[in-house]
Specification:
Chain B: One of its GO terms (cellular component) is mitochondrial membrane. Chain B: This is Mitochondrial ATP synthase F chain. The complex is a heterodimer of chains A (about 250) and B (about 110). Chain A has a domain of about 80 residues. Chain A has seven helices and two strands, in the order αααββαααα. The radius of gyration of chain B is 20 Å and the shape is extended. Chain B has a domain of about 60 residues. Chain B contains five helices and no strands. Chain B has about 110 residues and is mainly α. The N and C termini of chain B lie far apart (about 55 Å). Classes of the chains: A mainly alpha (about 250), B mainly alpha (about 110). At the A-B interface, helix 1, helix 2, helix 3 and helix 6 of A face helix 3 and helix 4 of B.
Chain lengths: ~250, ~110
């Protein structure tokens, strides 16, 4: 830095430009970016693509202006450029021959062209850059999408498999329910059958008893009837008539 | 190190992919931070072979490439660098002839 400052003071333009040029490019972030990434092993050692370097007036590196700021403030670089050019022109170290005026007119045309068409050209080229990048990324994106879709399908399949196990469980429960219902139905059938038989027995016994009773009564009545003789009948009639007479008298 | 080889200090296992803008040797103090009385020894430590000069120019070229030409949305700056650089170069080359066009005898 000190040497380049001396060369600035001595006013030797080509050397100044050369040293500053080396400085300006050496302050580029390429090396610093790489040195940052060297701490991590593996693929992170790969250099990162940079953002374009900042320039003023279309081409002068920002670093050349920054170089002046510590000592001279923000107007320093412009003051330096102006004073140096007046020195070079007044001493005719820089000769204003015919090519100078050619260059001046060319520069005016260039500035007009760049200001007028630059933004449009930049927009068009940026669009192309984006399209190019998109076309490069397209395959990767498609693959990512496909893989994501496959993953979601797989998850869905696993989910439906879980549903299948639930379904099997439900079916088992259903079968158990059917078995239970069948068991209860048979139980009630057996109960009904047994009850029917018992009722039958009860009814049968009742009927038998009734018949036996009826037969016994019939038998007793017939025996009593057969034991009554005609004398007894006659006596009985007489008795009845006497009773009636007694009743009539009373 | 033969013609077209990588620098001898470059080791892919340590440094990763080759970066043509990077110096792989041991780093000395940057020229901007060298004190005036150390300049002699600093220059004496430099490798002054033709291949080292070529390497330095190549690294400078690739630093410029990485900074101004290779970025995704590079502007018009690199083209203007070439234009103004060649203007300066040809001015210096033709200075002997141009200096005859001086208009004033005394300055």
């Amino acid at each position: 830095m000190m040497l380049s400052r001396i060369s600035f003071l001595s006013g030797q333009a080509p050397r100044t430009l050369a040293t500053s040029c080396i400085r300006a490019t050496s302050t580029s972030s390429a090396n610093s970016q790489v040195s940052q990434t060297t701490e991590n092993p593996g693929s992170s050692l790969r250099p990162v693509r940079q953002e374009p370097g900042k320039v003023r007036m279309g081409f002068i590196p920002e670093e050349w202006f920054q170089f002046f700021y510590k000592k001279t403030g923000v107007t320093g670089p412009y003051t330096f450029a102006f004073t140096l050019s007046t020195y070079l022109v007044s001493k005719e170290i820089y000769v204003l021959e015919h090519e100078y005026y050619t260059g001046l007119s060319l520069m005016i045309m260039w500035i007009y062209g760049i200001k007028k068409f630059g933004p449009k050209v930049a927009a068009a080229l940026d669009k192309e850059v984006d399209a190019y990048e998109a076309s490069w990324n397209e395959g990767r994106k498609e693959q990512t999408n496909t893989l994501g879709e496959q993953i979601s399908n797989e998850e869905k399949a696993q989910w439906s498999m879980e549903g299948q196990t639930m379904l099997v469980q439900a079916k088992r429960e259903n079968v158990a329910l059917q078995l239970e219902a069948n068991y209860r139905e048979r139980l009630i059938t057996a109960y009904g059958e047994v009850k029917k038989r018992l009722d039958y027995q009860v009814e049968k016994q009742n009927i038998e008893r009734r018949i036996a009773q009826k037969n016994l009564v019939d038998w007793v009545v017939s025996r009593v009837r057969s034991s009554i003789t005609p004398d007894q009948e006659k006596q009985n009639i007489n008795k009845c008539i006497s009773d009636l007479a007694l009743l009539a008298k009373a | 190190m033969g013609f077209g080889d990588y620098p001898a200090e470059y080791n892919p296992k340590v440094h990763g992919p080759y970066d043509p803008a990077r110096y792989y040797g041991a780093a000395d103090a940057p020229f901007g931070q060298v004190k005036l009385n150390e300049i002699g020894s600093w220059i004496a430590r430099r490798n002054k072979t033709p291949s080292a000069f070529t390497g330095a120019l190549s690294r400078a070229f690739w630093r410029w490439q990485h900074k101004y030409v290779q970025p995704k949305r590079a502007g018009i700056a690199p083209f203007l660098h070439v234009v103004f650089g060649s203007m300066a170069l040809f001015y210096i080359m033709n200075y002997g002839k141009i200096s005859h066009h001086r208009n004033y005898k005394y300055h």
